[in-house]
Specification:
The protein is of the alpha+beta class. It is built from five helices and six strands; from the N terminus they run H-E-E-E-H-E-E-E-H-H-H. It has a domain of 79 residues: Uncharacterised protein PF10387, DUF2442 (NE0471 N-terminal domain-like). A hairpin with a 5-residue loop joins strand 4 and strand 5. The chain is flat. The mean pLDDT is 84.
Length: 143
């Protein structure tokens, strides 16, 4: 015995935690370096994609093109690895660091507001019914 025996319950808990994390993080299906653009093409597991300039990826800014050509993606899509340099970069971190630069703040805010406004809840339904009985949404009072 090594003192590191894992029970079935421990294994099931770790598996559930990993699956939960995978749902809340960007994971890649494929990653490649585009030398002509000096950028990374990331295809996510949801068949979307990003082209991220290398200047936005701190861990890879000083890596030579010969090493970038040899990068590999971990099987679960969570990390980019350059084995020769013992270098690992989180796909989720890479995309989240680049998004504020790639997507203007007003556009991102509008997307989140639209998603929040389309949410359904019992409270919103009840409020809409009550306002409907009164003739619709109350008008804002002039200041």
């Amino acid at each position: 015995m090594t003192g590191h025996d894992i029970t079935e319950a421990d294994y099931a808990e770790a598996l559930a935690a990993g699956q939960s994390t995978a749902k809340s993080e960007f994971r890649a299906e494929a990653v490649s370096y585009l030398p002509r653009l000096d950028a990374f093409e990331v295809i996510t597991q949801h068949n979307g994609g990003f082209v991220i300039p290398r200047a936005l990826v701190k861990g890879l800014q000083s890596v030579g093109a010969e090493h970038l050509a040899g990068m590999t993606l971990w099987p679960d899509g969570s990390l980019i690895e350059i084995e020769a340099l013992d270098l690992h970069v989180s796909v989720d971190g890479m995309i989240k660091a680049a998004l504020p630069v790639l997507v203007p703040r007003q556009i991102a805010a509008g997307m989140f507001a639209a998603a929040g406004g389309s949410a359904k809840s019992a409270a919103k339904t009840q409020s809409a019914r009550q306002n409907g009985k009164k003739g619709g949404r109350p008008r804002k009072q002039a200041a």
